[in-house]
Design goal:
116 residues, 2 helices, 8 strands, two-stranded antiparallel sheet
Length: 116
Amino acid sequence: MGDTMDGHLILTAKKDYTASQTLEHINKLMFDYWKTQGYKVDEHGIIGKKNGVDNPDACRTTAWAEILTAPDGTEYFSSLSNESRIIDWKAFGTTIDIPDCFEEIEKPVEWIVEDV
């Protein structure tokens, strides 16, 4: 679905899920994905690397995104499809039992608020 879209892609929760629940599933997917790429994950998040070596003293990645609220009240967050380093994340999600809890769409133009 997101492969042919030109704008910024976002994820919204499907019926019976909240944005928080959806983000929890996406975070699990993200942590598991980066483990397959050779990164370590502990209770504080993903341990980054510096020059290919684990850097446990650096800040940790603890969540994929921040939940935002659109002018119409819809909660959403940025899709993993916007990150070129995460290849075929949807197929990866099916291997770790991520439920069908999100919809990926282009961010509607009317949701874009320009800073003044």
